[in-house]
């Protein structure tokens, strides 16, 4: 009489059941009253699996198919995960843990809840509307062609940022952290998603833009860098984003700046725009 472990290993080699997937720990659906988890515990038991397979292997594979159809894919975990699966799951776990730890201004009652109004001011300083409105105003006021060229490119960068972030958010569709309170002003529908942080992309891109195209004194340059870091940090502290949303957003903002430099609009590349 083989032990359950031996019999399971033997079954696994020729058995479609070796692809059997378990409920993800992330969803935490182990409640006895939950029909989904009850169904899984019963059918995942080695005794049950061995018996049902020996009795009718076709019934077992039908059952497995039914289970897989009933479960959303993200609720499953492979029995033999690859190195990449493990690395990604670990990163996700650290991300969620750090996000929760750092969300100190997520609510008024949070540990740094009294700093929430200040953090919301920082949030507004990185919002798209003041930056676009400010650029339009400067464009209107500017009387030098060099100044107009820089501001026009900044405006182009801000609009490109809105489009690219919207596209990535729409594709990835990652929900904002559970502790976030959706009380941001002026948002698009994709802003219910959190990956990547639009504030972080804008802060990284605009700060690089300013440091490279404006003549600034050293203390102001340091302030610009600190502002970009503070805007990004505030996204996690306010509970708006996970750490990875902000880290990727910051990286994406730097890449976007590279794109703007590459496609720089100048009187020679786009004369019609500069004749206005
Ligand atoms: C101001 C003028 C003259 C025109 C406005 C142009 C316009 C339609 C701008 C849209 C700005 C806007 C609503 C941006 C969204 C900013 C936002 C809430 C991003 C989300 O950031 P995240 O860090 O939470 O991802």
UniProtKB/TrEMBL annotation:
Transmembrane segments: 150-172, 214-234, 246-265
SUPFAM superfamilies noted in UniProt: Acid phosphatase/Vanadium-dependent haloperoxidase
Sequence segments annotated as region (Disordered): 31-72
Main location class: endoplasmic reticulum
InterPro entries noted in UniProt: PAP2/HPO, PAP2/HPO_sf
Residues annotated as domain Phosphatidic acid phosphatase type 2/haloperoxidase: 150-264
GO biological process, one term: phospholipid dephosphorylation
Protein name, entry field: Polyisoprenoid diphosphate/phosphate phosphohydrolase PLPP6
